[in-house]
Design goal:
It is a single chain. With 260 residues, the chain is of the alpha/beta class. It has one domain: 3-Layer(aba) Sandwich (Rossmann fold), CATH 3.40.50. 42% of the residues lie in helices and 15% in strands. Strands 3-2-1-4-5-6-7 form a 7-stranded parallel beta sheet, with helices on both faces. The longest helix has 32 residues. The two termini are 35 Å apart. NADP nicotinamide-adenine-dinucleotide phosphate (NAP) binds next to helix 1.
Length: 260
Amino acid sequence: MAYTIDLSGRIAFVTGASSGLGAQFARTLARAGAAVVLASRRTDRLKELRAEIEGEGGDAHVVELDVTDQGSIKAAVARAETEVGSIDILVNNSGVSTTQRIQEVSPDDYDFIFDTNVKGAFFVAQEVGKRMLARAKGAAPGSYTGGRIINIASMAGLKVLPQIGVYCMSKAAMIQMTRAMAMEWGKFGINVNAICPGYIDTEINNHHWQTEAGQKLVAMLPRKRVGKPEDLDALIVLLASAQSHFVNGAIIAADDGFAI
Ligand SMILES: NC(=O)c1ccc[n+]([C@@H]2O[C@H](COP(=O)([O-])OP(=O)(O)OC[C@H]3O[C@@H](n4cnc5c(N)ncnc54)[C@H](OP(=O)(O)O)[C@@H]3O)[C@@H](O)[C@H]2O)c1
């Protein structure tokens, strides 16, 4: 008999679902049975993904979200809960990067990264977490089935890399944010964990792999390969599931061994 994880009846809110890892997280959670809310700024792309998921028999919904806008965060989470239901799983995935040497970073470059990767991720998690907490506190003792928050940090939060210093700083902040939320919210049945992916081929970096610098980088990787978004499928399902109830505050590297 096979071991299975079933997310039927659960509602997952995935930020940055319009491309790359976020789109794949949404497909995978939908295949595992969850209803997925696809959230980001490019709603045309979210609607294409919704059609794809519905075509496979899944349940998907679209909400517009700009994580740098506090009003947009509150409106998107409220709309998701009104139209679909209480959010059980948050995949806090929206993120941006730039490539520059430290001496070339302007205040605008710095704000661009921190406003999305740190402030944006924090207030999305806070908005969803407040609603999970209210449900946990209002539920009859022992009856709250638990919340799951999965922050998508990076191995760049564990190991510094050249020319993406501010990005590395932002992902290190996300790792401590994960631990802080896990510490305060764990006792209410809300588990907060982080995935630290290594290099995965998506729109954030695919311009890079065919360049000389990109090829050099691949040659430095432990197994000389870049990952695919599907390489995180099993991990996202596990962290989203009830079966991971004993995993809280974990910072999980999924980087083919690069950060060792
Ligand atoms: N690919 C990798 O090698 C890698 C490695 C480690 C960690 N990561 C992390 O994984 C996450 C996903 O990255 P990816 O590789 O899938 O990159 P991507 O294809 O560029 O996707 C980034 C996503 O973030 C969303 N986003 C950006 N700014 C936003 C904003 N202000 N409001 C709402 N959504 C916003 C984008 O959606 P819209 O433009 O539609 O808003 C897009 O869907 C990021 O946090 C990234 O740092 C990636």
